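For homework, think about our next protein:
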Amino acid sequence: MEKLANMEKPWQANIFEQTFRDLAKEQELQATEMFQLLRAAVSGQLITPPLFESIQILGEDETLKRVKKALEIFTN
């Protein structure tokens, strides 16, 4: 959530991707694992249209809302 909240607005796909590639590296995950987690949080599915385009269509507010909800589910 912190990474999402601190990203420059409006979100740009290339910055979004690099931010979460860096986070994956920090968390010792493969980028594909990080993106799959985001995909599940944003869409509720593991197979979706391209992740970054989906996020752009949803918009920042809806994406933040969905990621926050997923985090609540997975951490409780």
About this structure: The chain has a mean pLDDT of 90. The first helix runs from residue 2 to 6. The CA atoms of residues 14 and 52 lie 9 Å apart. Residues 7-75 form a domain with the Arc Repressor Mutant, subunit A fold (CATH 1.10.10.350).
